[in-house]
């Protein structure tokens, strides 16, 4: 934990455009997310200007290649871009391969592109628990566009929608039929669908299946989200994708719903962060040898372990004990 003076110096450097201060602060937040409490009051007035784009989809859909191709076009438009790629961590060591930095080497010499890979540290939502704090730093630094690339998603890994202004869901012809795609929970969160690797057999059918599923969904009674075909490794379709992203963002910024959506995103992050903290508290409480547990709590835990009380009823009693402390 750095001293107050050291932290203030790094924050001042961040707001002054010092890329090393940005990198050091990201490292601090990734290792100690609680440090955001000291940083946020100083950067909050600089936030809110960057367009945060979440890029998610199943493993192997080409999210990193798509992010790299998007970054190239964004830079050609004169805008700066940060890429925050969340890689899966090892369940044994907690470490991560962080391979996206290898796949995006073409941008390393461009001062207008910042790339950072972070480990998801076992988070089940496709993003790291520190993602919000790091995104806030990137936004305050002044990047025009922030690309958030998630771990390959499954049914519960949908945190990207809580952190992004625009959500791009990337699928490929081999992703399966539309029913399987809907089961993955992706249909409900997308602002834009991308069928990547569109040179493969089944791409046109995938577009039709997604469109049919959207038309049957209660979530899309109005205009359907755009469905763009791309071949990210060659750049095909990327300009169409960026046009749709920019159009959606421009329309949303000038609508009355934009501030409402950002407020809702912050509350979603509050909820998920509170649940994480509560899980930590419960894990501590439920340790048999926790000396801080009072006799009533120890008795409750023993009754559940011995099968004398059902866990559902005991859970309600446990919550009441915590509330009354």
Question: Which key features would you list for this structure?
Answer:
325 residues; alpha/beta; Rossmann fold; 7-stranded parallel sheet; 7 strands; 12% strand
Given helix and strand content, the structural type is: alpha/beta
Q: Whole-number average pLDDT?
A: 83
- General form: globular
User: Which strand order does the major sheet show?
Assistant: 3-2-4-1-5-6-7
Q: For the record, what is the CATH homologous superfamily label of the largest domain?
A: P-loop containing nucleotide triphosphate hydrolases
Percent range for β-strand residues = 5-15%
Order of helices and strands: HHHEHEHEHEHEHEHEHHHH
Helix content: 40-55%
Q: Classify the fold: give the CATH topology of the largest domain.
A: Rossmann fold
Please count the beta strands (DSSP E, at least 2 residues each).
7
Q: Count the domains.
A: 3
CATH architecture assignment of the largest domain: 3-Layer(aba) Sandwich
CATH class of the largest domain: Alpha Beta
Rg calculated over all Cα atoms: 22 Å
Describe this structure as you would to a colleague.
- There is one protein chain.
- The chain is an alpha/beta fold.
- The chain folds into three domains: 1-43, no CATH class; 47-255, 3-Layer(aba) Sandwich (Rossmann fold), CATH 3.40.50; 270-323, no CATH class.
- It has 13 helices and seven strands.
- Strands 3-2-4-1-5-6-7 form a seven-stranded parallel beta sheet, with helices on both faces.
- Helix 5 links the parallel strand 2 (81-87) and strand 3 (113-119).
- The longest helix has 29 residues, at 257-285.
- The two termini are 30 Å apart.
């Amino acid at each position: 934990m750095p001293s107050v003076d050291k932290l203030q110096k790094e924050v001042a450097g961040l707001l002054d455009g010092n890329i090393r201060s940005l990198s050091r602060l990201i490292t601090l937040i990734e290792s100690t997310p609680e440090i955001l409490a000291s940083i946020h009051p100083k950067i909050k007035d600089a936030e809110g200007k960057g367009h945060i784009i979440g890029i998610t989809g199943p493993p192997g859909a080409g999210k990193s290649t798509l992010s790299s191709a998007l970054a190239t076009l964004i830079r050609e438009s004169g805008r700066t871009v940060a890429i925050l790629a969340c890689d899966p961590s090892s369940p044994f060591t907690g470490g991560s391969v962080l391979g996206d930095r290898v796949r995006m080497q073409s941008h390393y010499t461009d001062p207008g592109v910042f790339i950072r890979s972070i480990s998801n540290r076992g988070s089940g939502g496709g993003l790291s628990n520190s993602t919000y704090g790091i995104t806030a730093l990137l936004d305050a630094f002044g990047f025009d566009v922030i690309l958030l690339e998630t771990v390959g998603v499954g049914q519960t890994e949908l945190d990207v929608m809580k952190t992004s202004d625009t959500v791009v869901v990337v699928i490929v012809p081999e992703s399966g039929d539309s029913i399987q795609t809907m089961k993955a929970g992706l249909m409900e969160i997308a602002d834009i669908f991308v069928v990547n690797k569109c040179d493969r057999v089944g791409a046109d059918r995938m577009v039709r299946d997604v469109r049919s599923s959207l038309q049957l969904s209660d979530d899309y009674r109005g205009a359907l989200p755009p469905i763009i075909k791309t071949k990210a490794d060659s750049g095909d379709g990327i300009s169409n994708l960026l046009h749709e992203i920019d159009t959606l963002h421009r329309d949303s910024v000038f609508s009355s719903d934009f501030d409402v959506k950002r407020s809702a995103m912050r509350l979603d992050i509050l909820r998920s962060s509170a649940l994480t903290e509560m899980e930590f508290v419960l894990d501590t409480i439920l340790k048999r040898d926790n000396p801080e547990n009072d006799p009533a709590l120890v008795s409750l835990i023993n009754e559940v372990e011995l099968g004398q009380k059902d866990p559902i009823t005991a859970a309600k009693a446990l919550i009441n004990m915590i509330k009354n402390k």
